[in-house]
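INFO  loader      accepted 1 record
INFO  loader      residues=110
INFO  predictor   begin
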Amino acid sequence: GLGTEDPERADELISDCVAADASAIFDLFNGPLIRFALFKKSENRYILIITAHHVVCDGWSFGTLLEEISGIYNALLNKSELPLRPLLYSDYVQKTSAFTYTKAYELIQN
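INFO  predictor   done
INFO  writer      dumping tokens
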């Protein structure tokens, strides 16, 4: 856990860690360019914090990252097969191309 049973103190500790991480400078030459922090609030409650430099993670790819993490988490939770797929450049091109015709892409461009 967070070393405290007080929920308000736990939230304060998490907020302090998030603030410190958000203000930490990324080293573009040595990395890491993405950081993960997992906080255990109680026996069955965790908070995952992901901080990424925009060079490696834009809004669209961040959504993809969250989908992948969620799929793996749910598979482990349900003791089912991991939803691992090979990463193909053609898949990336197809998804990127399809995204350019969405309302979300239009909003980003304006």
